C-alpha cells in the first residue's frame, strides 16, 4: 500500500512538472487571486492601456511590464463566470458551440464576421476545431483600408482570413509547443506557435490573451491581433525590402543566403541602409572587405530562436549565431537592444522565423580593431595615449597582438609626457600574439613589441602581468585582444641586487647584503619578494644596536633573510591577509589596509618595484624576527625562586589532599631554603 502511495505521489509530481509555462503562470495568478473567491485570477494591467497579463512571481513583486507600472485587478479565470450574490467566479461558462462561445469570451467581432462570411454553420455544427479568435480590439486596430479589403468581399477574403485562424483539431495550450507549426484550415498554410518560458504564447507573433475556452465542437483561444498568412523566408524578405539593399549585398558576400532560406526558427535583427550609413565609411569598408569580420557581423544580428516582440515583457539575454549575447528588452511599446530603442519595425513574420528592422548596426567585438574596442570601454584614455605616441598602427592593423591597456582611472591626473622612454614603455604594453586570459598560466613568459619579457602571476583572487593585474574581462577583436589593466606596467630592468644598487634609498641595505654574503643569492634566477629597508629604516635603529648588527655577519644574515620570501607576491594579490614564509624560516604577514600594503603591520613606502628575479617593497623600518625582538615584561626570564614558590604553594594545597605528594612538597621547600641562602 505504501508503495502504491509513493507511485501516486511521483505521478502527481511528474504531472505538475509537465505543466506548460502558460499554465504555470495561470496557476500563480489563481494563487494570488484566491482570497477573492474561487476561480479568481490576479491580472496585471498596464496603466493607461487595456493590456493585461497573467502575473508570474517576479512580475507580482516588481509590478512592472516593460518598465512601466501596472495595477493589479481581479477577474474570472478563463472558463468561469460570476454568479450574483456569490463570492468569486464559482460557475463554469456554459458549454456551447464555437460560434456561441466567441460571443462569451470577448470576440464578438469574430462572431459577427463568422456570420457574414458564412463560416457560422461550420463552427456551429459537429466537428473538432481550434480557432485563434482576434479580440474585438484586434479587429478595431486594423487600418480602414485593410478592413475594407476583407469585408467588402465577404464570401472570399473574409472567409479565407477566418479559416486561416482555424485548425481542424482541438489544440490546448499544453499542446502549443515552442517552435511548432500548425496547418491552418486555409490551404494548409502554416501557423507558427511560440511558447516562451515566461508563459507568453504567440500565434504568428500575436499574443494569446485568453486560452482554452472549451466548446462542444472544439476550443477557442483569444489573440490580440488579426494574423496574416506567411509564405516568405527571411531571405526572401531581405530580397524584397527596399531599405535593406546593403544588407542584401552583405548576406550574398558572406554566403548566408542558404541559412536564411533554410528551415528553422531564427530572429534576424535586420540593419537598414540607414544603419549602415551611420558607420564611418572606413570602418564599413574594412568590415565589408573582410569575409570573416563580415560573417561575424551578420551572425551577431541573428538570434538562435524566434523572438516575437509580444514575448518580451522584461529584459533577457539571448544568444546569437556568432556565439555572443544581446540584451533584448522593452521600454513601454519600444523594443530595446543592449538598452537602446533601435528597433524601427518589428514582427515581420517569415516561414523560418521573424525579422525586426534595426536602425543601428550592432558590431560585435570580433569584427572590431583594438582601437575600436578600447574607444568604447574603460580604457579610452589609453588609446589616446598610444595614438599620441605614434603607435596607432598596432591598434588598427592586422597584426596579432594583445594590448595591456591601463584603465582610465590610472590617468585621472592627466597623461604622462611622451618621450622616447615612455614610448618604449608603451611598446612593452603590447604583447606579441593574440591571447586569451583564460589560457594564461603562472610563470608564463610573454614577449612584447619592446623586446621585453613579461611574467604572468596567477593568484587566488587576481591574474597579474608583472605589477599590473587584469581589471575586467577580455575583449577579443578581429586581430587583437584587449586586457584592461589596473595600472601601468613596470617591466623588470635587472635582478633584485641590480635594482637595489641603482636606487640610492637602499645603499645601506646593499652594504648589509654584501657584508652578510647574500649578494649571490639575490643575483641568481629566482622568485623573491624582498621587503627592503630603506636608509631611513636603518637610521631609525639605535646606533649601538645598528653597530652590533652590522658587526655580526651571522645575525645580520638572519635578519636580512627575514626580509625575503621565496615566492613573488605583487600588491594586486593582497586582498586581506597573505602569509609568506621568509628565507629565515618565520612567517611574514602581508595585509592591505586603507589601500596601503602592510608587512607585519608596518606600512610599505613603495610597492611593486619589479626585478627579473622578484619584486621589491620599500619599507621604512627594519623587520625583526620573533626571536630577535626585545622581550616585553611578560616575556622576561622568570625569577627561579619565584617559580619555585609558585609551584610549592600549589603543591602544598594538593599534598594536603593527597599524602603521596608530600615528599615532593618537602623537596621544593628544601630548594626554596637553598635559594634563600
Automatic annotation (TrEMBL):
Tell me which UniProt keywords the record has, alphabetically: Cell adhesion, Disulfide bond, Extracellular matrix, Gamma-carboxyglutamic acid, Phosphoprotein, Repeat, Secreted, Signal
* Cited InterPro entries: Adhesion/Biosynth-related (IPR050904), EMI_domain (IPR011489), FAS1_dom_sf (IPR036378), FAS1_domain (IPR000782), TGFBI/POSTN (IPR016666)
Location of the FAS1 domain = 95-227, 231-362, 366-489, 493-623
Annotated signal peptide: 1-17
Domain EMI positions: 37-91
Q: Where in the cell is it found?
A: Secreted, Extracellular space, Extracellular matrix
Return one Gene Ontology term, BP aspect.
extracellular matrix organization
Annotated Gene Ontology cellular component terms? extracellular matrix; extracellular space
GO molecular function terms attached to this record: cell adhesion molecule binding
PANTHER family given for it? PERIOSTIN-RELATED, TRANSFORMING GROWTH FACTOR-BETA-INDUCED PROTEIN IG-H3
Q: What binding partners and quaternary form does the record give?
A: Binds to type I, II, and IV collagens.
Protein role:
Plays a role in cell adhesion. May play a role in cell-collagen interactions.
Name the chain's protein. Transforming growth factor-beta-induced protein ig-h3
Q: Which organism is it from?
A: Furnarius figulus
Amino acid at each position: 500500500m505504501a508503495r502504491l502511495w509513493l507511485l501516486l505521489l511521483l505521478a502527481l509530481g511528474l504531472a505538475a512538472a509537465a505543466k506548460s509555462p502558460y499554465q504555470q503562470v495561470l496557476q500563480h495568478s489563481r494563487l494570488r487571486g484566491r482570497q477573492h473567491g474561487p476561480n479568481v485570477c490576479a491580472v496585471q494591467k498596464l496603466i493607461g492601456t487595456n493590456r493585461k497579463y497573467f502575473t508570474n512571481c517576479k512580475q507580482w513583486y516588481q509590478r512592472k511590464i516593460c518598465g512601466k507600472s501596472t495595477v493589479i485587478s481581479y477577474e474570472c479565470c478563463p472558463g468561469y463566470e460570476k454568479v450574483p450574490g456569490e463570492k468569486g467566479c464559482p460557475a463554469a461558462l456554459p458549454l456551447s458551440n464555437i460560434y456561441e462561445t466567441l460571443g462569451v469570451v470577448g470576440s464578438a467581432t469574430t462572431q459577427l464576421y463568422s456570420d457574414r462570411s458564412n463560416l457560422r454553420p461550420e463552427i456551429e455544427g459537429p466537428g473538432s476545431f481550434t480557432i485563434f479568435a482576434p479580440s474585438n480590439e484586434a479587429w478595431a486596430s486594423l487600418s480602414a483600408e485593410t478592413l475594407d479589403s476583407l469585408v467588402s468581399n465577404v464570401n472570399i477574403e473574409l472567409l479565407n482570413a477566418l479559416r486561416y485562424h482555424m485548425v481542424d483539431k482541438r489544440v490546448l495550450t499544453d499542446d502549443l509547443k515552442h517552435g511548432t507549426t500548425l496547418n491552418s484550415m486555409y490551404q494548409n498554410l502554416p501557423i507558427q506557435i511560440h511558447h516562451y518560458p515566461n508563459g507568453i504564447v504567440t500565434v504568428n507573433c500575436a499574443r494569446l490573451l485568453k486560452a482554452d475556452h472549451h466548446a462542444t465542437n472544439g476550443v477557442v483561444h483569444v489573440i490580440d491581433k488579426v494574423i496574416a498568412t506567411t509564405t516568405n523566408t527571411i531571405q526572401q524578405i531581405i530580397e524584397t525590402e527596399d531599405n535593406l539593399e546593403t544588407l542584401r549585398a552583405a548576406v550574398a558576400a558572406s554566403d548566408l543566403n542558404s541559412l536564411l532560406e533554410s528551415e528553422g526558427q531564427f530572429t534576424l535583427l535586420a540593419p537598414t541602409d540607414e544603419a549602415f550609413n551611420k558607420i564611418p565609411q572606413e570602418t564599413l569598408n574594412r568590415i565589408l572587405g573582410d569575409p570573416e569580420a563580415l560573417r561575424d557581423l551578420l551572425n551577431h544580428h541573428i538570434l538562435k530562436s524566434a523572438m516575437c516582440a509580444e514575448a518580451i515583457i522584461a529584459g533577457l539575454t539571448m544568444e546569437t549565431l556568432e556565439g555572443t549575447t544581446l540584451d533584448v528588452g522593452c521600454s513601454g511599446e519600444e523594443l530595446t537592444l543592449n538598452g537602446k530603442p533601435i528597433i524601427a519595425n518589428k514582427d515581420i513574420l517569415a516561414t523560418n522565423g521573424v525579422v525586426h528592422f534595426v536602425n543601428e548596426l550592432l558590431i560585435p567585438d570580433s569584427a572590431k580593431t583594438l582601437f575600436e574596442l578600447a574607444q568604447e570601454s574603460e580604457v579610452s584614455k589609453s588609446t589616446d595615449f598610444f595614438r599620441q605616441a605614434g603607435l596607432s598602427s598596432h591598434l588598427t592593423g592586422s597584426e596579432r597582438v594583445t594590448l595591456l591597456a591601463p584603465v582610465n582611472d590610472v590617468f585621472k591626473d592627466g597623461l604622462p609626457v611622451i618621450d622616447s622612454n615612455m614610448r618604449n614603455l608603451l611598446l612593452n604594453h603590447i604583447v606579441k600574439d593574440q591571447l586569451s586570459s583564460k589560457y594564461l598560466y603562472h610563470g608564463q613568459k610573454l614577449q612584447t613589441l619592446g623586446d621585453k619579457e613579461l611574467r604572468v602571476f596567477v593568484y587566488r583572487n587576481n591574474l597579474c602581468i608583472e605589477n599590473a593585474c587584469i581589471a575586467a574581462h577580455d575583449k577579443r577583436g578581429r586581430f587583437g585582444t584587449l586586457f584592461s589593466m589596473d595600472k601601468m606596467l613596470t617591466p623588470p630592468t635587472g635582478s633584485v641586487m641590480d635594482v637595489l644598487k641603482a636606487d640610492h634609498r637602499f645603499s645601506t641595505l646593499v652594504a648589509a647584503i654584501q657584508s652578510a654574503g647574500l649578494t649571490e643569492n639575490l643575483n641568481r634566477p629566482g622568485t623573491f619578494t624582498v621587503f627592503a629597508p630603506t636608509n631611513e629604516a636603518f637610521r631609525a635603529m639605535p646606533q649601538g644596536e645598528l653597530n652590533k648588527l652590522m658587526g655580526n655577519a651571522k645575525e645580520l644574515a638572519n635578519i636580512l633573510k627575514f626580509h625575503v620570501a621565496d615566492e613573488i607576491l605583487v600588491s594586486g594579490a593582497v586582498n586581506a591577509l597573505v602569509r609568506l614564509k621568509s628565507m629565515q624560516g618565520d612567517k611574514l604577514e602581508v595585509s592591505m589596509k586603507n589601500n596601503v600594503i602592510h608587512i607585519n603591520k608596518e606600512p610599505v613606502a613603495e610597492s611593486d618595484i619589479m626585478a627579473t628575479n622578484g619584486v621589491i617593497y620599500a619599507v621604512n623600518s627594519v623587520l625583526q624576527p620573533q626571536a630577535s625582538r626585545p622581550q616585553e615584561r611578560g616575556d622576561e626570564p622568570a625569577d627561579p625562586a619565584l617559580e619555585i614558590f609558585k609551584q610549592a604553594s600549589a603543591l602544598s594545597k594538593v599534598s594536603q589532599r593527597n599524602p603521596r605528594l608530600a615528599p615532593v612538597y618537602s623537596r621544593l621547600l628544601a630548594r626554596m631554603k637553598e635559594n634563600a641562602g
